[in-house]
Amino acid sequence: MHKYIILFACILIGHATLAQSKKELKAEIEKLKAEIEQLKQPPTIDLEDKQQKLSYSLGVSIGMDMTKRVGEIDSDALKQGVDDVTNDKVKVSPADANVYVMQEIQRIEKEKAEKMRAAGEAFLEKNKQRSEVTTLPSGLQYEVVTEGTGAKPAKSSDVVVHYTGKLVDGTVFDSSVERGQPATLNVSRVIKGWTEALQLMPVGAKWKLYIPQELGYGERGAGQDIPPYATLIFEVELIEIK
Fold first, then answer.
1. Is 229's pLDDT higher than 60?
2. Is there a domain that residue 65 lies in?
3. 128 near 120, Cβ under 8 Å?
4. Per-residue confidence at 27, pLDDT binned at 50, 70, 90?
5. Residue 213: band (very low, low, confident or very high) from pLDDT cuts 50, 70, 90
6. Which residues lie across from 162 on neighbouring strands?
7. Residue 176 in domain
8. Reduced to 3 states, what is the DSSP secondary structure of residue 95?
9. Cα–Cα dist 72/136, whole Å
10. Known catalytic residue: 173?
11. Is 191 a catalytic residue?
């Protein structure tokens, strides 16, 4: 009988010990979780400190440029690369890294350009089916918003216009209307789509122009705002012939 009592007591002690171990283990796990969450928090940057402000500003500049050029960036891998350079522990040579980066940027930009070209062609194909849109032999499309009654510019004319330019997704890339100041320009010194359209517009007219990429900025695009092969949409008001 005594041995059963002793055995039962041992079992109770074992369960108590196991319960205590589970409790301690759970507490350790919660502690580790809290430490991991703390590590995930970004470091505090003191922008009053010149070195930290310079370093942070470099990160912002690089991040903005690369995000525009290649899209999503793995910030952990980027940080690791910077740290490895700082600690002289790079896993690939700087020359190989530069070659790879350039190859990937070229590949990504080519893919973007093809998508931009395809999106523009699809838009124009659908747009020309609308009864209010006129399509010219060059591929230029226009829609009369307001009829004009004045003279039409010559190719050599200087004209005063108000305009808003958009991509086919609706992104505004330039607008004299938003600036509140009309633009003065020479009909022969603008993109081909504008040169063709302006010579058809009487003073006082407002047209929407749908400009194929080959009559716009083509494969080169224009700065950061107009990608290569972009189809352009302009709302143009011809105010005056100078």
1. yes
2. no
3. no
4. confident
5. very high
6. 237
7. yes
8. helix
9. 40
10. yes
11. yes
Domain that holds residue 142: 126-241
CATH number of the CATH domain containing 221: 3.10.50.40
Closest CA to 199 of 120, 108, 136, 127: 136
| 234 assigned to active site | yes
**Contacts of 47 by beta carbon, 8 Å cutoff, 6+ apart:** 53, 56
pLDDT digits (tens, 9 = 90+) for 65-95: 777 777 777 777 877 887 888 888 888 888 8
Q: How many domains would you assign to the chain?
A: 1
By C-alpha distance, which of 207, 216, 212, 233 is closest to 143?
Answer: 207
In a domain, 103, yes or no: no
Residue 146 exposed, middle or buried by CB count within 10 Å (0-12, 13-18, 19+): exposed
- 37: tokens are 């969450």
In a domain, 110, yes or no: no
Q: Which of 142, 163, 210, 229 is catalytic?
A: 163
Q: Which of 174, 211, 226, 229 is catalytic?
A: 174
Q: Does the active-site annotation cover 174?
A: yes
What pLDDT, on a 0 to 100 scale, did the predictor assign at position 6?
52
User: Does the annotation mark 217 as catalytic?
Assistant: yes
Mean pLDDT of the chain: 83
CA distance 164 to 174: 6
Instruction: List the catalytic residue out of 123, 142, 229, 234.
Output: 234
Res 207: pLDDT: 97
Q: Could you say which of 123, 142, 210, 217 is catalytic? A: 217
What mean pLDDT is predicted for residues 32-56? 71
Q: Which one from 5, 11, 84, 173 is the annotated catalytic residue?
A: 173
